[in-house]
Prior knowledge:
The protein is an alpha/beta fold. It has helices at 28-35, 55-62, 71-85, 105-113, 123-131, 148-157, 167-180, 219-229, 250-270, 296-314, 327-330, 364-368, 458-464, and strands spanning 41-42, 48-50, 53-54, 66-70, 96-98, 117-120, 139-141, 161-164, 185-191, 213-214, 234-239, 276-278, 320-322, 334-345, 351-355, 374-376, 385-391, 400-408, 416-420, 441-445, 448-453. The termini are far apart. Residues 1-28 have low confidence and may be disordered.
Amino acid sequence: xxxxxxxxxxxxxxxxxxxxxxxxxxxxxxxxxxxxxxxxxxxxxxxxxxxxxxxxxxxxxxxxxxxxxxxxxxxxxxxxxxxxxxxxxxxxxxxxxxxxxxxxxxxxxxxxxxxxxxxxxxxxxxxxxxxxxxxxxxxxxxxxxxxxxxxxxxxxxxxxxxxxxxxxxxxxxxxxxxxxxxxxxxxxxxxxxxxxxxxxxxxxxxxxxxxxxxxxxxxxxxxxxxxxxxxxxxxxxxxxxxxxxxxxxxxxxxxxxxxxxxxxxxxxxxxxxxxxxxxxxxxxxxxxxxxxxxxxxxxxxxxxxxxxxxxxxxxxxxxxxxxxxxxxxxxxxxxxxxxxxxxxxxxxxxxxxxxxxxxxxxxxxxxxxxxxxxxxxxxxxxxxxxxxxxxxxxxxxxxxxxxxxxxxxxxxxxxxxxxxxxxxxxxxxxxxxxxxxxxxxxxxxxxxxxxxxxxxxxxxxxxxxxx
Length: 467
Ligand code: LLP
């Protein structure tokens, strides 16, 4: 049996609470601040604490696996995004949290209380937002194939904006609005031809994909023309989303340049000024010590400067700028805890550490080759670190949670593992693969924990199965 220890690295106890993918990090404080929620500390017993609660206590109370959210950290990030914009018109927040990253009724209430708007992209997300009494006027409804029923519900609820994504949808919505005697505010989603520096499946503004109207091909201008023909639609602006997990503003610069060019062309052709420009979401977060995201203030300042400059160039009044961060608000406040079930050293290869969840609660590693940071959370250890692979319990060899994890070489069944930065797109993309039961979502705040979404039970599975 061999467990390769990191030869020159510090003792594992020195690199708590985070250990990076490519080796124990040089600058521990920077990593802790970037990857873990702000409340993450080691208690005197060595167990990781989040929101003032020990993960051991959380595991005992809520079971494992479980998604934990540091409520204060979530709210602080939401507030920082809004504050970065400075003053704005009442009821028209420039920041819309992208619900697809993760939404529950409590999250919708946090977003409402912090003054954010909310971007929803399905009837289900709309239903959760409305059930939480989220102010409908602060909702933006997205989607490349909204059903008639979804459009009707959006109109009946009075959502603030509907983002139009196809010619069929423009006519469909116009008809539904006319028959109800309402005039919804709409935006036209354009694809600006930017290849965002991200995984192919999460880049959305290059030409060859399903979202939006192509700017270079002329369909964006055609869509605007078609919307303007409909009395029952109020065109308020242009929407662009270039992708996700983006770290620099270069892609946004090109997007803003092209989107503002379209606003100028609309002014020139129709003599109208569209008041809004939504540049979407996509701002990256740190999953490992190698990721280095800018903070909200700098990003917003950068975006404002770019849009201001472009508008100046075209002699246009600067439109009201909005953004839709999902991951950048909810990613880092979320941590998943798992219980180790087996430890399997493979001679000359690596050690496989199996946990009680896997690809059903975090598909991102398998789907995007995403990298994560994880630690043994229930105790500290003086054992030398070893390079391990954290895998799930699903019947598939691609069922990997953390491809390369530095874990103490004395990791044993029963230890708790915590995986950082799982607050975005893990619960919302979770599945029941192998009839796994989806874990609960638990908020922690000032020494207490509260279940936001309960764990699924076998009774839930059986209730859907009509035999
Ligand atoms: N706005 C629109 C129109 C979007 O399509 C998205 C993400 C966002 C905002 C929020 O993007 P964020 O700030 O969270 O990056 N499941 C993938 C990401 C796909 C995101 C799709 N749209 C993942 O796990 O990384």
